[in-house]
Design a protein that fits this description.
mainly beta; globular
Length: 88
Amino acid sequence: MFFSKSQIVQKWKCEVIRVDNECVTCVLHDLADVSKPDEIAEIYLCEFSKKHRKSLKEGSSFYWIISQETNLIGRLRSISEFTCKNVI
């Protein structure tokens, strides 16, 4: 199905504060509304690609982007994407 329109609805810069066998704990800095206070989140490591998991260490950062795509008949699809910095 072809999607004709994509819009970012939320974006955070995330700073890793802890990584264990299953989760990464991070501080979320809201880039969509910088007046909002920082939040703490735990995200399952399986949500990241194997390549990105290797770069998740205390002090590293990544972006979490939530977007919506609308197809040609108006159906919405939400997408959650993690983008790690300095991944080779």
